[in-house]
């Protein structure tokens, strides 16, 4: 990660002594807040006519918090800025003058993700640290956003530092910001620190854990491979007067089905039923995926009918599990059938859908359908590996469908969301037959 640190360690987590938060949230004036005030008392002796003239003729004072008349805030505009340093400077300037800009969560998520992908962590620090100067930071919800953004960027040390500084920034810490810190640690894969924080901080800060806290630590334990400890946390949760929910069980189902096979996951399913927790579509998807992974594709197809019977709607992940299962078996007809059922359902195909189907169609020589799928992918602005598209281009040339190959190459250059460097090879430079590696 950007801040170093050792890999996941198998630290055992115990439940801290819990005390409820005694202090209600109180907003205090930040040391950085401006002293902007307006004196707007109307003259008591002014006639109605003269008051009206004064209202018409008076030029209002500029509000330092108001936004410029032309204030670009679109993700597209930010995406078009290719220089990361200019992007960061422009972003800071806009955040400084505009409250509404600071409320645009999608722009923040996009910008921080882009800078993190480019490994420009100093620019991320420059942007987010500057937000300590805004009076918004005294509101816990705003502080939680900054902690979360540090977590998404892989900068857990900065997230922890901000959490520790919140009292000096006139922000009262509750279980909400504590949970945000835990989640940031999980996203950064700093599981040993997550366990230590879970054990130590609640009693130190008089924070009472809630169900989100336990769900997060269960997630951390499962990511560490400590599945049985994660399961034991159910007892700790209940001893605190809380009840597990479907998120608790989905976290455990995901880990147990993946690591301990279908029977291991069924143990969690039975526990979920015993707790009267109603499964949702994701729960059913995890069970269906485990059937596919275990080679019981026929059982998975039968189980698919349980969705409708139990009042649930299959989503794209449901169909993807079956599509990939049949693709792995080389059963092109069934894969096509489930792809068509996906389209008929109104769900939108995604990257996984195309990444499963396209190589399968290429393997069986159905490049016409692979071409149609590739164009559909461009229409839906789905990003896939460049090698996958080059595989289709090569196959089209081999099948003397050069016009179609060149159309894909052009789409790779001209689309508005990602640039693919595809080439139209000559027949003598094509890969050997059967080389469909992606």
TrEMBL record:
Transmembrane segments: none annotated. One of its GO terms (biological process) is chloroplast-nucleus signaling pathway. Keywords: Repeat. Pfam families: PPR, PPR_2. It comes from the Eukaryota. PPR repeats lie at residues 210-244, 245-279, 315-349, 350-384. The keyword Iron-sulfur does not apply. Residues 37-50 have a biased composition (Low complexity). Residues 1-51 are annotated as: Disordered. InterPro entries: PPR_rpt, TPR-like_helical_dom_sf. GO terms for cellular component: chloroplast. NCBIfam families: PPR (TIGR00756). Belongs to the PPR family. P subfamily. This is Pentatricopeptide repeat-containing protein. It comes from Opuntia streptacantha.
């Amino acid at each position: 990660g950007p801040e170093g640190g050792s890999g996941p360690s198998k630290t055992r987590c115990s439940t801290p002594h819990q005390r409820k938060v005694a202090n209600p949230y109180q907003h205090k004036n930040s040391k950085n807040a401006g002293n902007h005030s307006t004196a707007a008392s109307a003259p008591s002796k002014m006639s109605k006519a003269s008051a009206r003239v004064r209202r018409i003729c008076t030029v209002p004072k500029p509000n330092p918090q108001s936004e410029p008349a032309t204030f670009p805030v679109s993700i597209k505009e930010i995406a078009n800025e290719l220089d990361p340093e200019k992007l960061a400077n422009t972003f800071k300037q806009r955040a400084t003058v505009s409250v509404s800009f600071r409320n645009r969560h999608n722009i923040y998520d996009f910008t921080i993700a882009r800078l993190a992908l480019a490994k420009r962590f100093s620019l991320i620090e420059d942007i987010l640290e500057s937000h300590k100067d805004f009076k918004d930071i005294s509101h816990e919800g705003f502080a939680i956003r900054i902690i979360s953004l540090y977590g998404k960027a892989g900068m857990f040390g900065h997230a922890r530092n901000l959490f520790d500084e919140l009292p000096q920034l006139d922000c009262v810490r509750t279980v909400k910001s504590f949970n945000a810190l835990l989640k940031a640690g999980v996203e950064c894969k700093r599981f040993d620190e997550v366990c230590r924080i879970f054990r130590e901080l609640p009693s130190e800060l008089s924070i009472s854990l809630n169900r989100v806290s336990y769900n997060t630590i269960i997630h951390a334990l499962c990511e560490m491979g400590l599945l049985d400890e994660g399961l034991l946390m159910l007892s700790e949760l209940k001893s605190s007067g809380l009840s597990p929910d479907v998120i608790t069980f989905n976290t455990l189902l995901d880990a147990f089905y993946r690591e301990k096979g279908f029977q291991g996951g069924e143990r969690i399913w039975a526990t979920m039923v015993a707790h009267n927790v109603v499964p949702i579509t994701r729960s059913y998807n995890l069970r269906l995926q485990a059937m596919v992974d275990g080679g019981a594709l026929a059982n998975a197809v039968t189980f698919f009918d349980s969705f409708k019977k139990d009042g649930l709607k299959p989503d794209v992940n449901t169909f993807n599990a079956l599509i990939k299962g049949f693709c792995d078996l080389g059963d092109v007809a069934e894969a096509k059938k489930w792809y068509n059922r996906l389209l008929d359902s109104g769900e939108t195909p995604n990257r996984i859908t195309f990444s499963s189907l396209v190589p399968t169609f290429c393997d069986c020589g159905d490049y016409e359908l692979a071409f149609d799928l590739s164009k559909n992918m461009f229409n839906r602005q789905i990003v896939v590996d460049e090698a996958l598209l080059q595989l289709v281009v090569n196959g089209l040339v081999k099948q003397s469908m050069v016009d179609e190959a060149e159309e894909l190459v052009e789409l790779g250059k001209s689309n508005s969301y990602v640039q693919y460097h595809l080439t139209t090879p000559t027949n003598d430079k094509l890969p050997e037959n059967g080389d469909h590696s992606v």
